[in-house]
Amino acid sequence: MNQYSNLPEGHPARVYLEENELIRSLITQINDLDIGAEFEAFEELFNKLSLTEKHFARKENQLFPYLEQYGWTSPSQNMWAFHDDIRAIFKMNRQLIQTKELASLSISLQNLFRNLEHIIQVEEGRLLPRALEMLQESDWMEMRDGDEEIGWMFENPPAAWPAHTEDEYIHPSQDTKKRKLPFSLENRIDLDVGHMLPEQINWLLKFMPVDITYVDENDIVIFYNRGDDRVFPRSAGIIGREVKFCHPPKSVDQVLLILKEFKAGRRDEAEFWISFKGKFIHIRYFAIRDDEGTYKGVIEVSQDVTHIRSLEGQQRLLDWE
Fold it and tell me: What is the pLDDT of residue 174?
């Protein structure tokens, strides 16, 4: 890490390099073990090595988007694919660990180690040097804020950068710092994460594959999404109506009980599942609370999960047949 020794502690690029040192150390420790005789120690080290996933996730969700803003899209397209190859090798090794096929495991581990060393060399020889040339300090500072949310391979977080006291930390979901974006913020609504035009919010809610109804803290229906294939019929006449008048008499008592428990803070969720017109319907109620925990209403979410319940095995490739 000598070539980056001038980087301050906690700088995202320095943290990547420190994690690379950790990865190499874990590989060395595993290679020094007799896996058959020291299987528990091996499993502990392998689990620590598996936290490489956090290293990859930060690159994919943090570093790569900033590089894309400067026109360098190759890492997003090529290195991400290599991450997925390594993830598949990790998965294979976990399966061999479960079945204790030690001979095959030994071979598969060496394949994993070679691939990890290769990607480390690409990071240190090309990715990070060019990223440090391209990105501004403000980019790295913004990136570090998001890194906090994903986490690191280390047991303890790296040093804060820029240095700040503990009470100055702002969680990414509450971060209102302005950032360079490829679109105008004019007429957009600032959300916890992201900025959307009103019509985009409407489209999002309209095309969600679930029925959503929002009842405010006064038990008044203020919204429902109007999809083309709703589970239960709704009409604009329910907007502004008390929720107790929007349910059949046989179920209204349960609805009122849910509201009572939500308002009292004793419950935050209720769920039901029923058969309805040949479909299997999943219904959930979620209490809505503000940052201070004050009750702000409830959303009812209904979904036809008939198809979902029938799924088996895996489908990892697109199949539009």
Answer: 55
Q: Token pair of 89, please?
A: 């090798």
In degrees to the nearest 10, what's the CA dihedral of 144, 148, 149, 154?
Answer: 120
Task: Identify residue 123 by its one-letter amino acid code.
Answer: E
Calpha distance 262→265 (Å, rounded): 5
Is the Cβ–Cβ distance between 48 and 116 less than 8 Å? Answer: no
Bridge partners of 275? 280
Domain covering 199-310 in this structure, CATH number? 3.30.450.20
pTM of the model: 0.64
Q: Contact, 286 vs 301, CB < 8 A?
A: yes
Provide φ and ψ at 273, rounded to 5°: -145, 135
Handedness of CA 191, 193, 195, 196 (dihedral sign): negative
Per-residue three-class SS string for 163-183: CCCHHHCCCHHHCCCCCCCCC
Report residue 308 as tokens: 């979902």
Task: Please list the alpha-helical segments (H only) found in 123-248.
Answer: 128-134, 137-150, 198-207
Task: Say how far apart CA 151 and CA 148 lie, in whole Å.
Answer: 5
- Read off the tokens for 300: 């009812």
- Supply the pLDDT for residue 229: 75
Tokens of 156: 């303890």
**Where in the chain are the domains?**
2-161, 199-310
Q: How far apart are CA 148 and CA 127, in angstroms?
A: 21
CATH topology of domain 2-161: Four Helix Bundle (Hemerythrin (Met), subunit A) (1.20.120)
Q: Is 83 exposed, middle or buried (0-12, 13-18, 19+ CB in 10 A)?
A: buried
Distance separating alpha carbons of residues 233 and 231, to the nearest angstrom: 7
251's tokens: 């179920």
Q: What is the pLDDT of residue 167?
A: 46
Distance, C-alpha 110 to centroid of its chain:
30
Contact call for residues 223 and 213 (beta carbons, < 8 A): yes
